Q: What sequence folds into this?
C-alpha cells in the first residue's frame, strides 16, 4: 500500500484511515466486508467440516434414484418407480398450480372487496371491513387448518351417497359431489386425441396446446377489433357496432375446435370406495386455495383501497362534471390511475402467495415442500442438499414472478415525458 | 415444519466440531439429563399420561438408559419428533437416543449414519378399516383412500404392496398419528396403515374400538428399536446393552420384585454378572457395576414393561407373538453377559 501521496503534497498517515472523514467510511466498509466474508467462510467451512465428521458427502445423486412413494395429485406422469427428481417436478407443478389459481382468485376478491369497502352503503362497507380485518389479523395457517377441518368433519363420506336410501346426494343435476375427501366435479374429455409433444421431461397434450392457441388467438383478434373500432370512432366520431363481431371472434373458433375434438364431460360416479371419473379437487387443495385467496385477498383489498384513495378527489368530481356515471368514473378514470399505486404492493402479495403455498404441508398438500422438502429428504437423508435446492427453486420462482410483474408495472406506470 | 428441519440442518452444520468427537456419555453425564426423542404421542409406546409424565414402551427404554447412566430414570428430557424431524434431530445431536418406533433398515443404518441398538419390538405393517366397509382382506382395497404418515417406511411398503398386487389407491399424507386418527375417524380415508402395534394402540383410544378391525395381512417386516448416531461406539453399546439387559433379565427370571434379593448374590453366575456381583462389565464401557440393576429397577424387565404398557391386560392388548423370548418361540435373544 502506498503510504504517501507525493503529488498532493500532504503526507498520508495510517491514522488518517480512521480519523480523516475522507477515508473513514471506506475503511469501515472494507472492514465490515472482510468480517462478513470471514463469517460466511466460517459457516461454509464448519458445514463441510461437520458433514465430514458425520461421514456425509454433498451430492445431488439422490435426485435420480427411484422415489418409491406415491403422490396423490399429479399434473404429469408419475409413479412410485419415478425418480426423486421427477417427484420434485410433480411437487413444483403442484406449487405453481396452487400459486396461479390463488393469485387469480385473490386478485378478484381483493379488487371487489377493496372497491366495496369504499362504498357509500354502510352495510356493504362495514361487511368488507369485517372481512378484511378478520382475515388479515389471524395467521394464515389457522385459516388453512380451519377450512380443512370443516371440509373433513362436516361433509359426508362417499359411502353416504351409496344405496337406495342415501343420506347425501350430488349437486347440480348429479354432476358435483362434495365429500369429506374433496370435491368431485365434471372433468373435460376428448374423443379424439392428437397425441402429445414430448418436451424432454414433460409431455404436453396437443389438444391442450391447440385449445390454448385458439383462445389466445381469439383474444388477440378481439383486441385488434376493439382497437380498430376506437380508431374509427376517433376519426369519424361514430363507433361501429362491435358486440356481435366480438362474440363471434371469441366463441366461434373455440366451439368449432371443441366439437372437432369431440369434447365432452366425464361425470363423477361412485364406484368402489370413492367417486371415479371427473376431476377430483382434494380437500388439501381446496383448503389451501380458499385460505390463500381469502387471506391474501384481504391484503390486496387494502392495497386497492389505498390506491383508489390516492387518486385525488378532484378526478372524480371532474368526471362527474363531464356527466360520467359512477361506474364509468371508477373504470375509466379512477382505477387506471390507482393501478400505479396498486401494482408494486401487489407484486409482493403474489410473492407471498407463492411462498405461503409451502404451508401445504400442514394439510398434506403435495407441493414442492412436501415432496422434495418432506418425503424425499426424509427417505434419502439429504437435508442440506434438499433444503438448498428447495430454497433455490423458491427463489427462482419468486424472481420470475417479480420480473414479470415489473414488466407489467412499467407498462401501466405514469409515463413521464 | 420447514423451520424445524432447516434449523436442524443448520444446527447440524453449525454444531461445534468438538461435540461430534467428544464422548456422548460424558456429555450426558455433564448435562445430568438424557435427551430422548419420542413420538408426538402413540398410546402405549410414548405418550404423556394425565399427570404429564411420559409413559410407554419406548419411553421405558429411555428411562432404563437414564437409570443406567445417570442413576435416575426421571432424568430424561423427552423431545417430541415427527416422522419427518426425527432423523435430523438425532443427526444434529439435539437428542442422544431416538426411541420412536423406528424401523431398522439398511439405508437408515448405512446411509443416514445411525446405529440401531437392537430391536425392542418386532412389528409389521397392517391395515385398519371400519367394519361398516365390509372389507376382510387387504387384497380388496383397490381404489381405497389410505391415510399414511409421511416420511416413514410404511409409505414405501404401501406403494410396493399396491404395486405388486396391481391395485390403485389414493394416499392421504399425514404428519402425526393424532392427525391420522382424526382423519380416519372422520371418514376422510377408508384405511389407516402403519405398524400393526401402532394401529392397535390407536384403536384402543377410539370411543368404539369394536367397530374397527385390523386386516389379517401384515405386509412388511418392521423391526423397531432405539437408535443413536454413528461415530460413538461406547454410547451405542451402552444403549444396546441396556436393552439387552432388560431382555436378559426376563430370560433369567430377574424381575423388579426379586431384583434386590438377587442382587445380594445368587448361584447363577450369569445373573451375578448382569447385576454386578461378579466381574466388572459396567466399568468396561464407563459405567459402574450396578448399571444393569438400575436399568431393570426403572421399569422392570422386558416382559414387565411389555405387560404394563402394551400387553394383553392393557387397553392396547398386544400379544407377545414374535416378541416372546426365544425360549418361548419368539425372537427375543440377548447375547450373553460375559
A:
Amino acid at each position: 500500500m502506498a503510504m504517501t501521496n507525493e503529488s498532493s503534497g500532504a503526507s498520508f498517515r495510517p491514522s488518517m484511515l480512521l480519523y480523516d472523514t475522507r477515508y473513514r467510511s471506506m475503511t469501515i466498509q472494507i472492514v465490515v466486508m472482510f468480517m462478513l466474508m470471514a463469517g460466511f467462510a466460517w459457516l461454509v467451512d464448519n458445514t463441510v467440516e461437520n458433514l465430514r465428521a458425520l461421514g456425509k458427502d454433498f451430492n445431488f445423486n439422490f435426485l435420480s434414484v427411484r422415489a418409491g412413494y406415491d403422490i396423490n395429485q399429479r399434473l404429469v406422469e408419475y409413479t412410485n418407480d419415478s425418480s426423486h427428481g421427477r417427484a420434485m417436478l410433480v411437487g413444483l407443478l403442484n406449487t405453481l398450480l396452487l400459486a396461479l389459481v390463488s393469485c387469480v382468485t385473490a386478485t378478484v376478491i381483493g379488487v371487489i372487496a377493496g372497491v366495496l369497502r369504499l362504498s357509500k352503503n354502510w352495510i356493504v362497507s362495514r361487511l368488507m371491513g369485517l372481512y378484511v380485518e378478520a382475515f388479515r389479523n389471524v395467521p394464515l395457517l389457522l385459516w388453512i387448518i380451519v377450512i380443512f377441518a370443516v371440509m373433513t368433519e362436516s361433509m359426508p363420506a362417499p359411502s353416504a351417497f351409496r344405496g337406495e336410501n342415501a343420506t347425501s346426494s350430488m349437486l347440480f343435476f348429479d354432476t358435483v359431489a362434495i365429500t369429506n375427501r374433496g370435491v368431485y366435479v365434471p372433468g373435460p374429455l376428448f374423443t379424439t386425441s392428437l397425441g402429445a409433444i414430448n418436451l424432454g421431461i414433460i409431455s404436453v397434450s396437443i389438444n391442450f396446446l391447440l385449445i390454448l392457441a385458439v383462445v389466445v388467438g381469439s383474444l388477440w383478434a378481439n383486441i385488434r377489433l376493439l382497437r380498430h373500432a376506437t380508431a374509427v370512432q376517433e376519426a369519424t366520431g361514430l363507433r361501429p357496432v362491435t358486440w356481435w363481431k366480438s362474440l363471434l371472434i371469441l366463441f366461434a373458433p373455440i366451439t368449432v375446435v371443441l366439437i372437432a375434438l369431440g369434447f365432452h364431460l366425464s361425470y363423477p360416479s361412485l364406484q368402489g370406495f370413492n367417486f371415479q371419473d371427473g376431476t377430483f379437487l382434494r380437500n388439501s387443495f381446496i383448503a389451501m386455495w380458499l385460505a390463500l385467496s381469502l387471506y391474501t385477498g384481504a391484503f390486496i383489498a387494502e392495497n386497492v383501497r389505498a390506491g383508489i384513495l390516492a387518486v385525488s378527489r378532484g378526478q372524480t368530481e371532474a368526471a362527474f362534471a363531464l356527466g360520467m356515471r359512477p361506474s364509468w368514473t371508477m373504470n375509466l378514470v379512477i382505477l387506471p390511475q390507482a393501478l400505479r399505486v396498486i401494482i408494486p404492493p401487489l407484486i409482493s402479495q403474489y410473492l407471498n402467495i407463492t411462498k405461503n403455498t409451502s404451508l401445504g404441508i400442514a394439510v398434506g398438500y403435495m407441493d414442492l415442500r412436501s415432496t422434495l422438502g418432506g418425503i424425499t429428504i426424509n427417505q434419502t437423508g439429504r437435508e442440506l442438499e434438499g433444503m438448498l435446492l428447495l430454497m433455490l427453486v423458491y427463489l427462482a420462482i419468486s424472481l420470475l414472478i417479480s420480473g414479470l410483474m415489473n414488466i407489467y408495472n412499467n407498462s401501466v406506470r405514469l409515463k413521464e415525458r | 415444519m420447514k423451520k424445524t428441519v432447516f434449523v436442524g440442518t443448520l444446527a447440524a452444520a453449525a454444531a461445534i466440531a468438538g461435540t461430534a468427537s467428544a464422548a456422548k456419555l460424558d456429555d450426558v453425564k455433564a448435562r445430568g439429563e438424557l435427551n430422548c426423542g419420542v413420538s408426538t404421542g402413540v398410546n402405549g409406546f410414548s405418550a404423556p399420561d394425565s399427570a404429564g409424565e411420559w409413559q410407554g414402551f419406548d419411553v421405558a427404554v429411555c428411562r432404563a438408559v437414564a437409570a443406567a447412566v445417570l442413576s435416575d430414570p426421571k432424568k430424561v428430557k423427552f423431545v417430541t419428533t415427527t416422522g419427518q424431524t426425527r432423523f435430523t434431530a438425532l443427526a444434529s445431536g439435539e437428542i442422544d437416543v431416538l426411541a420412536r418406533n423406528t424401523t431398522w433398515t439398511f439405508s437408515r443404518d448405512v446411509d443416514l449414519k445411525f446405529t440401531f441398538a437392537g430391536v425392542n419390538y418386532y412389528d409389521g405393517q397392517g391395515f385398519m378399516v371400519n367394519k361398516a366397509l365390509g372389507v376382510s382382506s387387504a387384497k380388496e382395497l383397490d381404489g381405497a383412500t389410505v391415510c399414511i404418515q409421511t416420511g416413514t417406511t410404511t409409505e414405501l411398503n404401501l406403494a410396493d404392496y399396491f404395486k405388486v398386487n396391481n391395485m390403485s389407491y389414493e394416499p392421504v399424507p399425514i404428519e402425526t398419528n393424532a392427525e391420522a386418527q382424526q382423519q380416519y375417524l372422520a371418514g376422510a380415508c377408508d384405511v389407516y396403515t402403519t405398524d400393526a402395534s401402532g394401529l392397535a394402540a390407536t384403536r384402543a383410544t377410539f370411543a368404539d374400538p369394536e367397530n374397527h378391525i385390523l386386516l389379517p395381512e401384515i405386509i412388511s417386516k418392521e423391526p423397531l428399536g432405539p437408535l443413536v448416531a454413528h461415530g460413538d461406539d461406547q454410547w451405542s453399546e451402552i444403549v444396546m446393552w441396556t436393552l439387552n439387559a432388560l431382555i436378559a433379565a426376563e430370560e433369567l427370571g430377574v424381575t423388579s420384585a426379586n431384583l434386590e434379593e438377587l442382587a445380594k448374590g445368587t448361584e447363577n453366575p450369569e445373573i451375578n454378572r448382569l447385576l454386578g456381583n461378579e466381574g466388572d462389565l459396567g466399568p468396561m464401557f464407563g459405567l459402574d457395576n450396578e448399571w444393569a440393576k438400575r436399568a431393570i429397577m426403572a421399569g422392570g424387565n422386558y416382559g414387565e414393561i411389555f405387560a404394563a404398557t402394551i400387553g394383553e391386560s392393557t387397553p392396547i392388548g398386544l400379544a407377545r407373538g414374535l416378541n416372546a423370548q426365544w425360549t418361548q418361540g419368539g425372537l427375543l435373544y440377548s447375547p450373553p453377559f460375559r
User: Anything to note?
Assistant: Chain A touches chain B through 47 residues (CB under 8 Å). The two ends of chain A are 49 Å apart (CA to CA). Chain A has a mean pLDDT of 86. DSSP finds twelve helices and nine strands in chain A.
